What we know:
CATH class of the domain at 1-118: Mainly Beta
Helix content: under 10%
Number of strands: 25
CATH topology of the domain at 1-118: Thrombin, subunit H
Structural class: mainly beta
Number of helices: 2
Amino acid sequence: MDWNAVAIVAGHVFVSGPRWTGFDGPAVAEISRHGEIQPFPDKQWNNWRPGLDARHSFVNVNALHLDPSGRLWAVDTGTPLFGGDPVEGGPKIVCIDPTTAAVLRVYPMDKDVAPAGSYIDDIRFNGRHAYLTDAGRGALLVLDLESGLFRRVLDGVSATKARPERPISVDGHILRTAFGSPLLVNADPLEVSPDGNLLYFGTLEGPWSQVPTALLDNPDTAPGTLAAAITPWANLPPIGGSAMDTHGNLYFTALSDDTLYRRSIAGDVTRIASDPRLHWADAPFLDQSGKLWLPAAQLDRLAQFHRGASHIKLPFQLLSLKVARP
């Protein structure tokens, strides 16, 4: 199982990994204290195969996250193939009680929300709203958690589109698709400011922008008004993922040098740790004790990026370290 997301709550360790990596194993799992991997919330949610009903099973989970009340959320892109289109009923957000494994609610996304070419990537919460990124087509989604309605915003604006002049470089080489062109990943990482007033977001390649959440949350905000409210936030390099603490410090993993950095709210960037095991450390998770958990996904070493020859170095590792939060 190639995990690229992790969440820790009440002593439970949850991981997930996308189907397109080609590895067997559940889409979402809990790791026991003895290292055993158990499907979560159950086997039925993890038994999807092509041709089966995708509405109540995971097709391709790209992210896990906790909301402020401690509920676990899984982001299912609904796309079984890398660069492919979502299957019918596949794109959805699933809210789960992490202690009882009860599925509390499923938020399905129709074709207007997750059209062909979309890849719903990650999620963050802010009051009654959640925000998601579409790394496939380049857009943001705003979800009203009470009504269950999605709105697709900033579709195709420059801030949500990857820039070819900022390629993803790993191990000194530009990461390329199976067709030889540089891999471009649109709107991907995102965070909400501690006061909830701003959403920070960027493409995987960077840079990051910011936009007022009051405008995002208002369905009457005109598209042009919302786009005009976007301003630059941070000129970050290509990253595997990010986590923000309650002080506004951003922890991120740079893909080019297997390094974890911290960007302070003032904009100062500090190197925290460098280690070859932090290779494409994806979607770090900061727990309440101040420990940062990092799943080393090694996504750039997958066979589809090397003409069918896998460069993966087993075993997959889940690393953690205590980080100071000034």
